Amino acid sequence: ILLLLRNPKDVATSFYHFCNAMSPLPSYETWDDFFIAFMTKKMPWGCYFEYLSEWNKYAADENVMTITYEELKENPVLAVKNIAAFFGISPTEEELQSVVERSSFQSMKKNSQKTHGAFGDVLFRKGGVSDWKNLFSEDQNEKMDKAFEERIGGTKLGTKLKYEMYCKA
After folding, report:
1. Best exposed site among 3, 49, 62, 139 by fewest CB in 10 Å?
2. What range defines the domain where residue 142 resides?
3. What contacts 15, CB < 8 A, 6 or more positions away?
4. Which residues contact 86 (CB under 8 A, 6 or more apart)?
5. What pLDDT, on the 0 to 100 scale, is given for residue 169?
């Protein structure tokens, strides 16, 4: 099982834009309204921290590889090599480069109309990291950090995400 995680702050930011672009989902007039709903577990898909807590039960299993979106963005070649090794695949250098190019956010966004139809525009917005800095107030940042520490900070997944969130920021 390949478990892909992402900085909870970027998850919230991405969900905010996703909700406001998807008419069947609740939309939010302001980021502040969304942030309150996100932090008080009032999301249609549940609480991200609870999702992480549930997956943490399996994070040490030998058949689970955990990787972060931030790792994929920082060094896609190494990430793909590690994923291939985990699944027992030995790609050639040419195959490796092809996978890296075809799985890049830019490539997937470019092909999203073919792969996902009109829904592609909703799924592929920016694909960056740290976009949360454009929305979070200082107070919201502190609240998210506190909730993160309380809910998953000392867990295996929490430790992995914490490194991505604070050591590389």
Report:
1. 62
2. 2-168
3. 34, 38, 43
4. 2, 65
5. 52
User: Which residues make beta-bridge pairs with 5?
Assistant: 68
Percentage of the residues of the chain whose pLDDT score is greater than 70: 98
pLDDT at 78 over 90: yes
Structural contact between residues 18 and 25, judged by C-beta atoms closer than 8 angstroms: yes
Q: Is the dihedral of CA 21, 27, 29, 34 positive or negative?
A: negative
Mean pLDDT of the chain: 89
3 state SS of 35: helix
Number of domains in the chain: 1
Evaluate whether 90 touches 29 at the Cβ level (below 8 Å). Answer: no
Query: For 29-54, what is each residue's pLDDT tens digit?
Result: 899 999 999 999 888 888 999 999 99
